[in-house]
Amino acid sequence: MSIRDINQDWINQFDKPLIIAGPCSAESEKQVMEIAERLDKDYVQVYRAGIWKPRTKPGSFEGVGAIGLNWLRRVKEEFGMLTATEIANASHAKLALEFDIDYLWIGARSTVNPFAMQEIAESLRDTDKVVLVKNPVNPDLDLWIGGLERLAAQGIKKLGVIHRGFSSNNKSKYRNNPQWQIALELKDRFPNIPIICDPSHIGGTRELISEIAQQAFNLEYNGLMIETHCNPDEAWSDAKQQITPERLKEILVDLTIRKKNDLSDDFSSKLNRYRGEIDELDNQLLGLLASRMDVAKKIGILKKDHNVAIFQPDRWNVLKKLAIRNGSRMGLSEEFLDHLLISIHKESVDLQNKIMDDI
Asked: Coiled-coil segments, which residues (predicted)?
């Protein structure tokens, strides 16, 4: 079965964008129930909680385990909410199905591993649950699509993806660079696959959630997954990116939802997508410039230690000629490149001057 041919009617059951919210980690039954009670059910349809937490390093909190599935079942029974949790292996999948969890998502660390994806797909064979695939840690669209194809091959028809951003060594305001163009390419190639944005993991701080969520809706995403906690600062995992249920409602109320109603919306839709790509590229440029200035500082320290002058005319002329030649091949005008290089060089010189003056 091709994922392009699957009719994803499950997303159309909601009269509003799909909102999945709840704590990064289920910590106690009391915590899980308090958050569920405080969430506004007019906006949030699905309650999420991490039961098993795959962490980068051992020794940190890695989830309460299967006992938390009882708490999610109680949320469904008492509040009538759909429930969701992350599964990372076949054992997790089996338990989640036994406890009738409605939405199962596969995390970035699992998506990046085809062997793990195949194991999970086989354990979920022919399930009627909704299965969502987070983008892999690295920016690899084929790997992301491959995960969907493995699930579809096992007869799983209710599929979607979660865009949570990609790891990067470049400096950025984001925890995980959104790289919107990758998610938009998936959306263009498979318009039938619902796409959910995870502003919590993209931003890494609660202050960025509203901005990222709005950008996702500008790009016609189908919904959001946002980490929500009754006491965010005391959360056992990812405290900085969690918000209270009350703050979540404020954000959701203020969001502008973009919808296609007629042919004229095609222009707005494409314009928003292109602007999203520009925003992402601008962010990458800023990260690269910041990294370049870090190297300039190291050079300044080296020059100071060896009592070498900051400005080296021969080096500057070679750098400038090379950059203009390469940039011209890429279609950039010489005038633009000249202005850009002079500004970058001036900032580098100013940084090195400060290092020289710091005795």
From this structure: 264-291
- d(CA 86, CA 96) in angstroms, rounded, equals 9
Q: Which domains does the chain have, with CATH numbers?
A: 3-254 (3.20.20.70), 265-357 (1.20.59.10)
pLDDT digits (tens, 9 = 90+) for 291-326: 999 998 998 898 888 888 888 888 888 888 998 999
* Helix then strand then coil, % of the chain, to nearest 5: 55, 10, 35
Residue 15 pLDDT class (50, 70, 90 cuts): confident
Buried b (16+ CB within 10 A) or exposed e, 260-275: eeeeeeeeebeebbee
Per-residue b/e over 215-232, b at no fewer than 16 CB within 10 Å? Answer: bbbbbbbbbbbbbbbbeb
Please give the pLDDT value at position 106: 98
H-only helix segments in 197-264: 199-203, 209-218, 245-254
Cα(60)–Cα(203) distance, integer angstroms: 21
Give the residue carrying structure tokens 């944005």.
197
Single out the residue of 26, 197, 195, 202 nearest to residue 99, CA to CA: 26
